[in-house]
Amino acid sequence: MSLGTQHDGQGGGVHSEVREVVTVAERIRGAIETVIEGKPEVLRVTLTVLLAEGHLLIEDVPGVGKTMLAKALGRAVDCSVQRVQFTPDLLPSDITGVSIYHQDRHEFEFNPGPVFANIVLGDEINRASPKTQSALLECMEERQVSADGRTRPLERPFMVVATQNPGDMEGTYALPEAQRDRFMARVSVGYPAPQDELDMIDSHSAGSPLDALAPVTSAAQLRALADRVCEVHVAPGMRRYVVDLINATRTAPELHLGASPRATLHLVRAARAHAALDGRHYVVPDDVQALAVPVLAHRLLPGPEARMERLTPEQIVSRIVARLPVPGPR
After folding, report:
1. Which of 187, 203, 231 is at the close of a domain?
2. Measuring CA to CA, which residue among 136, 161, 170, 160 is closest to residue 62?
3. Cα 276 off chain centre by
């Protein structure tokens, strides 16, 4: 079902307050699908994070289209895009920028780094050292860069789309908990279905489909849509449901580290965007349940018993959601 054919659950069609959100999201999704085929759930989470003004972590094995997805998103929006290839020798100043002294003027001039863009593509982020990875902490949380005694704001929209290989692969560093917590959601692209892989052979035979991808929206329009998403209603019962879900991760015996208060805010913001993509101006339990795994799982640390049972954070979150009572009608 396309994004624009959803109903508001009360017998009506798309609500007027979020009609433009649905329309623009459908255009972006259509543009990305010319490059990435057969991944509707991944694209749904990607659009949710984009409209919620969050950051996205794409984790999977090499060669499944992680970087292609990030590039396609950047091409679909008419805004500034910068790519950073993370390597072990990358320095923090290579990301944030560096001050250069001009001998003729006897003064320093700050040269902005690639982080001064609307969409920053961080390729293989876990191949850089933890010191370099930490250069993104202030940028991702506070949308600013502090250097040489000055604080420089980053322009909206600002989104970091980072790709990483699984942590057990050679040459990777584990992302610090503080950085994982700044990503609103994590998705896994996965291998394509056989038919999609056959179609990929045809679409990529004459060159990269990225070359033909044209922008379908602008930075200004994205800012306006993000402001509209913030107005999606979250009833008191739904707020309590989110808080109960977060607190359940902190008391779950399977987990050594539960979700943070930042995770609470991220889940609410993502639920608002998810509701808007369905054409609704209010959040329902389905929005929270659909996003619980991508928004929460990458922040959690399983305990010793869970590791012995080989339980993944995704499985633990699904169990918590299944046993948590769902709030009744408003």
Report:
1. 231
2. 170
3. 17
128 is in which domain, residue-wise?
Answer: 15-231
Residues 189 and 276 in one domain: no
Same domain, 185 and 160: yes
Same domain assignment for residues 171 and 285: no
The tens digit of pLDDT for each residue in 232-270 reads: 999 999 999 999 999 999 999 999 999 999 999 999 999
Distance CA 4, CA 95 (A): 38
State the DSSP string of 252-282: -TTEEE---HHHHHHHHHHHHHHHHHTT-SB
Flag whether the pTM goes above 0.85: yes
Clarify whether residues 225 and 236 are in a common domain.
no
* Cβ proximity of 263 and 296 under 8 Å: yes
Task: Kindly state whether residues 174 and 186 are assigned to the same domain.
Answer: yes
CA–CA separation, 275 and 129 (whole Å)? 38
Distance CA 163, CA 79 (A): 20
Distance CA 293, CA 284 (A): 16
Q: Which residue has the tokens 């989104």?
A: 159
Residue the block writes with tokens 């950047």: 74
Q: Would you tell me the crossing angle of helices 285-296 and 261-277 to the nearest 10 degrees?
A: 130
Identify which of 221, 284, 225 has the alpha carbon closest to the alpha carbon of residue 22.
225
